[in-house]
Amino acid sequence: MVIALDVGTSSARAALYDARGRPVADRFHQAPYEPRVTADGGVEHDPAALLEAVAACLDAVSAGSPREGDVLGVGVTTFWHGLLGFDAAGRAATPVYMWADSRAARAAAELRETLDAVALHVRTGCHVHSSYWPAKLRWLGREQPALMRRVARWGSFGEYLELELFGEAATSVSMASGTGLFDVRAARWDAEALAAARLEPAQLFAVVERTEGRRTLRAPWAGRWPALRPAAPWFPAIGDGAAGNVGSDCVTPDRIALNVGTSAALRLVPASPAPPPRGLWRYAVDRTMPLLGGATSEGGNVLAWCRSVLHLPDDAALEDALAARAPDSHGLTVLPFLAGERAPGWRGDKRAVIAGLSLHTEPLDIVHAALESVALRLARVYALLAPHAAADHVIVASGGGVTRSRAWSRMLADALGHAIVWSDEPEATSRGAALLALDAVGARSMRGAPRAPLDEAFVPDPARHARYVAALERQAALDLKV
């Protein structure tokens, strides 16, 4: 068996999977947490709090069974783009600055004026944007120079976890590909991006293959989790989007992964590692498997925001009410940029707008328009991504933001103009981490594994799609004005 550890934006999960990639009954644990959000656009996590959540998850899944020696390895996936500084002793010297932290938007704008942003996008697969490390490091250098002087190395939460558990750490190709500092084609840190971030290669961790696991936990962790002894490999963390594609069996050009969690994304393993088109990114699962796609800063966080500020009914009643409404029937136009914009426009300083409010507007109108606005943003990403997919491709949806709502799934299918099929796998990201770990230990090939069953399909209605095409034009016109 293997343990899959998934450290996400809003919770950590651990689960036990057997050698065929199936979850073991009652061997799953989830520990929620929330980032610190500041009025100036900051979104931070305390790495010690994340470690505590991870430890609680591993305590739960390793207790009792499996027996010592039954665990073949631990597959790890963490959120992409999180930036964390370490002091000379390897301790955390900063919080984890998250992808949604938009305080580096001005630094990103300055970098776009001084860099060949197009060439950098071709090499690194990343746009110059506040979610990536070059802009964040420039911002920190200007705003917190004393803090910068305390930092000896920069990495992600995955490296923090390895340092705490093993005393040493490395960065996977997958995690490096989401930093904005890594030349994906050459598989090395990019000299121009490093110069823009004012970094030397020695200030980053070595980049390794996803199969290069660490062994021999330090005390007291080895005694705390005897199921991981005598030396089960702990594999370097890979990006959560990469694990999501693997876990939803979207590793060929005929399947596009649609994930709606805190944020949302459409991702595809293309037939060739061609440069990404403007508006999309190119990351990697590993050196042999590129990943093309676009992630928005909005997703389930928009629904969560609506729930926090509007008087909405409970989930079941809200679902029924949304399902009964005609598309774009609220008279509102929404730009859902609560955390700035990522794909496809990559403007970190953009902010949310609700236009068309009147005395007649009700909370249900606002949440309906907000959810539709997320679907419309994803429709723009899909228009860029679809030409790189097989002609007969399937869109496989996962993530609680979408698979708990048939009404929102229908909005997405109608907005994209293409059928969406729910994945039958409730934890696609964790399953991906498990399949990659099984592949790394030689127990099961990632590419040759049978696909998990699919669930309900949502076929677009031509008339509803036409209404969403008009709504998208109206959203684009508002975007130009504000």
Question: What do these coordinates show?
Answer:
It is a single chain. The protein is an alpha+beta fold. The protein folds into two domains: 2-240, ATPase, nucleotide binding domain (Nucleotidyltransferase, domain 5), CATH 3.30.420.40; 249-424 and 452-482, ATPase, nucleotide binding domain (Nucleotidyltransferase, domain 5, 2-Layer Sandwich). It has 17 helices and 23 strands. The chain has helices at residues 47-62, 105-114, 117-124, 133-143, 145-150, 157-166, 173-177, 191-197, 221-224, 240-247, 300-309, 315-323, 363-385, 400-403, 406-416, 428-440, 462-481, and strands at residues 2-7, 11-17, 23-32, 36-37, 43-45, 73-78, 84-86, 96-97, 153-155, 171-172, 182-183, 188-189, 207-208, 238-239, 255-260, 264-268, 281-286, 289-296, 333-335, 353-355, 394-398, 420-423, 454-458. The strands form seven sheets. It has a seven-stranded mixed sheet. Strands 3-2-1-6-14 form a five-stranded mixed sheet, sandwiched between helices. Strand 11 (182-183) and strand 12 form a beta hairpin. The radius of gyration is 22 Å and the shape is globular.
Which labels suit this protein?
Nucleotidyltransferase, domain 5, alpha+beta, 482 residues
What value does the average pLDDT take? 94
Number of helices: 17
| Tally of strands | 23
How big is the Rg?
A: 22 Å
Assembly state: single chain
Q: What proportion strand?
A: 15-25%
